[in-house]
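Usage

Read records sequentially. Each one opens with the input sequence:
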Amino acid sequence: MTSRLSFFTARRALLIAGLMAGAFHAQAADAPRVKFATTAGDFVVELYPDKAPKTVENFLQYVKDKHYDGTIFHRVIPGFMVQGGGFDTTYTQKPTRAPVVHEGREALAKGGDKNVPGTLAMARTSDPQSATSQFFINVNDNASLNPTIIPPGDPVPKFEYQGRVYENTPRSQLVNAPQLFGYTVFGKVVSGMDVVNKIKATPTGAGGPFPTDVPQTPIIINSATLVK
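and closes with the structure output:
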């Protein structure tokens, strides 16, 4: 009897694993992709609507509106990230819609990527709820940019952040702490990472209103197109 039960248990586990794998492949197959054609070459990003739906919808609307066409990578830091999507070639900031809600914690809780090389994330100000059109591509393992998931409970019995332990902290203090929001990862580069690495290696300096980190030879996004 034991061996028969073990057989059916194992078979059921394999069946579930197969169904999960099938669902994963279906999600991957349905994931939208956007091709960026730039003066440094082309790259393609795959988006995660199942992890950060509002962020992906916001990004795709900017793509459909041709917002990114003619914008530049205005901030390039070799050991950190490359950032664009907000300024044209005259360093004029393009108008945007209202900010998108921050989904960093939710995306991470659903198994989304952290801020590791090749991932696509939303840029913002110090206000976590300020992301509009600007994005960045991580070119390093930027653990300091990852959202912090808050443990259950109110007050939270124990919480550790940057080596310090906090006990019996009101949940609202942690959930609303700006430094714990991190940055929302909503996609990744699936082809053309060599182009991103080329962008990160470009010489930088002052440009427009920015005192540093601006490519001295402008890197322009000629077009951003939904290809899938």
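Summary fields computed downstream for this record:
- The helical segments are 2-30, 53-64, 104-109, 171-175, 193-200.
- The chain is about 25% helix and 30% strand.
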